[in-house]
Amino acid sequence: MPEPSTGPSTGTTGSAAPRSLAEALRARDDDSLAALLRARPDLLNPVPGDITQLATRAGTRASVVRALDRLDRFALQSAEALAVAPDPCPYPVLESLLAGEHGTTGGADNGSRAALPRALGTLREQALVWGDDERLRLVRTARELLAPSATRPSPTGLGPTVAEATAGMSPTRIQEIVAAAGLPGTHDPVSAVAALTGLFTDPERMAALLDEAPAEAHQVLGRLVWGPPYGEVTPQPTPPVRWLRDRGLLLPATARTVVLPREVALHLRGGLAHRVPEPVAPAVPAHREHRPHLVDANAAGQALAALATVEELVKSWEHTGPAVLRAGGLSVRDLKRTAATLDATEGAAAFWIELAYAAGLLAGDGEADERYAPTPAFDDWCELPPAERWSVLAAAWLPATRTAGLVGEQDAKARTLSVLGPDLDRSAAPEVRRRVLDLLAELPEGGSADPAALLARLAWERPVRGTSDLRARLAHWALTEAEVLGVTGRGALSAPGRALLEGRDPAAPLAPLLPEPVDHVLLQADLTAVAPGPLRRPLGDTLAVLADVESKGGATVYRFTPGSVRRALDAGHTASDLHAFLAEHSRTPVPQPLTYLIDDVSRRHGHLRVGASSSYVRCDDDGMLNEILADKRSAGLGLRRLAPTVLAAQAEPTTLLDGLRAMGYAPAAESRTGDVLVARADARRTAPRSAPEPVPDGPPVADATLLGSAVRAIRAGDRAATAVRKEPAEPSAPAPAAGELPRTSAAETLATVQAAALTGSAVWIGYVNADGAASQRVIAPVRVEGGFVTGYDHTADEVRTYALHRITGVAELAEDQV
């Protein structure tokens, strides 16, 4: 058989078989160590002092669990197979566990043989497996996590070995099993267990033994062969179970359960560790194909709608934003109110709120009675061109960890998760979101994917995480959000979405797709105005005050009502201002009904004046006041006459204004001096706020510069820890062992570093810093003066200065170490 190729992942620089993980790592080249640190960034926090520390940290439970969590399904299946294989395991044995005894499953090659080198290369690269192909070893922590035990079943469905299952069995009982299996007796339990193991691993003898089994016994084995391997038995087992138990094909696990030994199960499985090996990632074909320009056009329309929705949302919180709950977040009532304002579902409203928050457009105002309000960044955002505004939203969405889809669900303490609440962060969300877009990017341009195929691929790539439905839900939410945001169109990745994914400015491909903002509207006789495209500022801002949005889409329809006209008058516009504004910006003549509406509301506007008494109403027309007092709808306002033209009220001015407007009047608020108060829409802003930072899913992946520096530091630290030192001149002063700080007198230390500075050689020192932390260093002294030594520190890869009184000792390096 040709030698298996496990790829370049080991990157070894020596030929001797390593005896430990540390030796295996020490034999790697720098590129291989950098690949390990890139794949497992938690190993860099902090940078290990040497290779031994790196190996120790790579074997800790937390780090191994994180590494296993990021394996694809076949790499994980390979690790699981190694966990049930002999330790160490030759490559051919591992291959047979994954490909079957003859490399086939059901008569056809399952692809495991060809895929195993890649999977094994991944495990080696991540330091989960070490050793050459003759002695493959899974790191001990991974074996403990993946191997079967009485309390934790193996993902393979295999049970304990014969040796493990008979560990507590009496020697007499073991000899009885050996005899019933047709084996000669032995003198000790160890050799008896070895003989039984040899029988179960011999295909020919096992086939002969099973030929003698009753038909019902085969049925029993068939129920246990693929796991779980444990079965309950009665005090008086059936004859087939008794036949299997007497010959060791089933072994007692407890008084009421039996277990199928691993060797027996593997024989029945044809040598396979897994029922269905999955060496190849599920394909994600193009489910539908669309013309790219149609995809981009659809995405541009969604992008434009997203901009309008976010702007409408944030502006609706300008006057009196919703209160911040004591525990943080938005109340259910305020979410419902916002959803009604946006004409959207509560789930969609939650997404837009979280997106605006992630983009830094709204935040809590920080007051004692805290409320949400737009931030100053919102004003800057509104001034940007539409494509750049969308770019801000998309750039905030892609790495966001806050998950709006969880709103309304309950956490582990049965508390309802609220919008903008503290418990919506899911660190896996950005990784899933980006991976979904990556898979869409791999399709032909304009191609959309079947969501089921996407989910199957994601589950294969992260099988450990795939055991929870959260990952599938995150993928579903990513698809939905990408579509409504305009990152995709008709399910296919759009040109702006592709630019976003590749780290390019998405505004550049989006700008040509968006309609140019217009500076006019079309006034209709039915008191509506049609905006044939996005409106320029300040036209859009003024029209939003003067009219209500009736429908959105490619063209926005505004409706003029008495209330909307009164709102414009309250904002300080006069009737003549409004007539001039409409005449200037309408491509059609101003209809008479609209002119009459503005004049009628203007004539009545401010006729009633409301001020603070607690509050009052004054009007020169005492008949109108009589009419108000006689109206039953005014009963809740607590009105009473103070003077012929003044009514006092027991309600607050705002409540009084709303009540009178609901009765059909057009009152105006006035100040203490009697002047009309003008409401400004942009009155409330928070103090400057920065956008929330995403919650990282573990340490970030280091860049190439940091990886290179870390590898050099680890190499130098390892050199300091393992370098061979010269024997000291004094026989009474033994050389320090590797890993121990050298100890020399102050005079010896000074003389040695001075000599090294003259010869340009490197020395090994022990150093204790100001915090009392001890370390070993290899330095090349260049200057010794004033109680300090300055030199190139090979460990830190930089020039440093050390206080001589903090050096515990110094030792010269052997000639081959210099």
Q: How would you describe the shape?
A: extended
What Rg do the Cα atoms give?
39 Å
> How far is the N terminus from the C terminus?
45 Å
* Helix fraction by DSSP (H/I, runs of at least 4): 40-55%
DSSP helical segment count: 33
Mean pLDDT: 87
Q: How can the largest sheet be summarized?
A: 5 strands, mixed
Proportion of strand residues: 5-15%
- Runs with pLDDT <50, length 5+? 1-9, 103-108
How many structural domains are formed by the residues? Answer: 6
**Oligomeric nature of the chains:** single chain
Order of the strands making up the biggest sheet: 20-21-19-18-22
Number of strands: 27
User: Which structural category fits the helices and strands?
Assistant: alpha+beta
Task: Give structural notes.
The chain is an alpha+beta fold and 818 residues long. The protein has six domains: 7-146, no CATH class; 162-268, no CATH class; 287-513, no CATH class; 522-586, no CATH class; 609-669; 723-817, SH3 type barrels, CATH 2.30.30. Helix content is 42%, strand content 12%. The chain is built from 33 helices and 27 strands. Helix 27 (562-570) crosses helix 29 (592-604). 39% of the residues are buried.
Give a summary of the structure in a few sentences.
The protein is 42% helix and 12% strand. It has 818 residues and is of the alpha+beta class. β6 and β7 form a beta hairpin.
Topology:
Elements: H1 21-26, H2 30-39, H3 51-58, H4 61-69, H5 73-83, H6 91-99, E1 104-105, E2 108-109, H7 112-125, E3 129-130, E4 137-138, H8 140-146, H9 162-165, H10 171-180, H11 189-200, H12 203-211, H13 215-224, E5 230-232, H14 239-246, E6 251-252, E7 257-259, H15 262-268, E8 286-289, H16 292-316, H17 332-342, H18 346-358, E9 362-364, E10 372-374, H19 376-382, H20 386-397, H21 429-441, E11 447-449, H22 451-461, H23 469-485, E12 488-489, E13 492-493, H24 495-501, H25 507-510, E14 522-523, E15 528-531, H26 539-546, E16 548-551, E17 556-559, H27 562-570, H28 575-585, H29 592-604, E18 609-611, E19 615-618, H30 622-630, E20 640-643, E21 646-649, H31 653-662, E22 668-669, H32 704-722, H33 746-759, E23 763-768, E24 774-785, E25 788-793, E26 798-803, E27 807-812
Parallel strand pairs: 18-22
Antiparallel strand pairs: 1-2, 3-4, 5-7, 6-7, 8-11, 9-10, 12-13, 14-15, 15-17, 16-17, 18-19, 19-21, 20-21, 23-24, 23-27, 24-25, 25-26
Helix pairs in contact: 2-32, 5-7, 5-8, 10-11, 13-14, 16-18, 17-18, 21-23, 22-23, 27-29
